[in-house]
Structures are given as structure tokens and as C-alpha cells.
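Late entry, evening session. Most of the bench is empty. Finally got around to the prediction I had been postponing all week. Sequence below, unchanged from the version circulated by S.P.
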Amino acid sequence: MKIRILFTAALLIGSLPAVASAEHHDARPIQDIVDTAVAAGSFNTLAAALNAADLVGVLRGEGPFTVFAPTDEAFAKLPAGTIDTLLKPENKAQLTEILTYHVVGAEVPAAAALTLDEAEALNGVTIALTRRDGRLFLNESEVIKTDIKTSNGIIHVIDAVLIPPALAASRGPVDPVVAQLASKAIEMGAPLFNQGNHAACAAVYEMAAEAMMLMPGGTMTAGNEKMLQAAMQQVRRSHSPTENAWTLRRAFDTMMGSAM
């Protein structure tokens, strides 16, 4: 169901008593989405993530936007280390994919959202909208506060981080042995790379990756196993130690963060 089709109908819908809503004002707020979130004091992790992904400028734009904003408590529900991993420069693409999954490129008030079955996020991926006992859910995340007006759109507050399906498909617990091996490889390889010895770093990473691939079936999730195989195939085709080191480092980082 397309958002644009429902905007006119949404104007005819009354209040949303079952979901807490911010107070409405006739005058348009002065602060944009970013400043409103920062001023609230409960979106510090989101603000840091937007900075790391270079999305602050986007959400200061004209819009209008609808942002489904996870609170700091929502981010805290992710497994330990996930946020730190996502904030690393080499994981910027994955972080951007996650954050843009929380933004719709149109203004969608709660009343309109309650009439939708789905909405398309900025990253082009669909978010499922459902109603359960008068409450609104985005995938499995509950909307806990709605219609926070800003100068360039609306913020709805959610209680869990939305993970795009493509990333969620590869999620799963990382086997302790795999995690330890990846962590040790990075611990040994990163200093070598920083000292300019890219070939030695790549060799350390390759040995760790080969050891992982020799582990019994089911040790790694299917998504991680497929990703590691693709990374090794790329390494075997490449003659650049620098490229090989980065290819495997990104694979290890993704695996370490795959339990989000």
C-alpha cells in the first residue's frame, strides 16, 4: 500500500488514543529532526551513529522525512560490542543501511501509519507495519511515542533498532571459537598493517579464515559462511596484499557484529 495514496484519507482520521502522542501546535517547530533528537537527550547513540554515517546533513535537509527513532535504551538491547563495531569507519556502509531503514522520505503521521501495511524506507527496503491490541509495530519494534513535530518532518519513537532483512538474514550467535579466532587474527594483523607490512597482515587473516572454513558444518551461520567463502575467493583472485587484508578484515568485522 503506497504512502502517497493514503495521505488524503489520513487527514480525515481522528486522534490515536492507544498510542502516546506528542502535543500538536499550529506553528511549525523551529528545530529540525537532528536538533530535536539531540535536545531530547534520549537519542545520544542515534546522534553518534548519524554522525558516523554522514547522515546529519541529509536529515537537516528540506524533507519532509519521517524518522523512526530508537532510544538509547533500544540501542542498548543490541549485543555487547555491536554499536562500537558499527561505528568503525570500515563499517560505514552497513551502518548507513541500518540508519536509512529508519527513515521514510515523506511525512507520515501516526494516524496515517495506522492505515498502512508497509512503508518504503530511504534505503529502498520495505518496513512492515502491523497493529496489535491498538499498538503500532514496525516489524517487531513497537512505536512508543508518536508525532513529534520538527521543521522538516516527524519523529516517531521506537523501542528496538530496525534491522534490514538482508542483514537480519545472516544474524545469529557467533560461535565462541570463531569469535576468538577472528578477534585474535585482528589483534595480530592490525599492528602489522599499521606498520606497513600489509602482506604479513593479509597472511595472518588468510590463515584465520582458512581455519574457520575447516570447522565442522554449522559452526558458523550460513550467511557468515557464504560471506567468508566469497571473501576468500576474492582474495585468491587478487594480487594486492592491501586489498586482501581489507577484504578479510571487513569479513571478520561483519561476522563479529552479525549477532545484532
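Two things to note before I forget:
The longest strand covers residues 141-150.
The longest helix spans residues 176-194.
Will write this up properly tomorrow.
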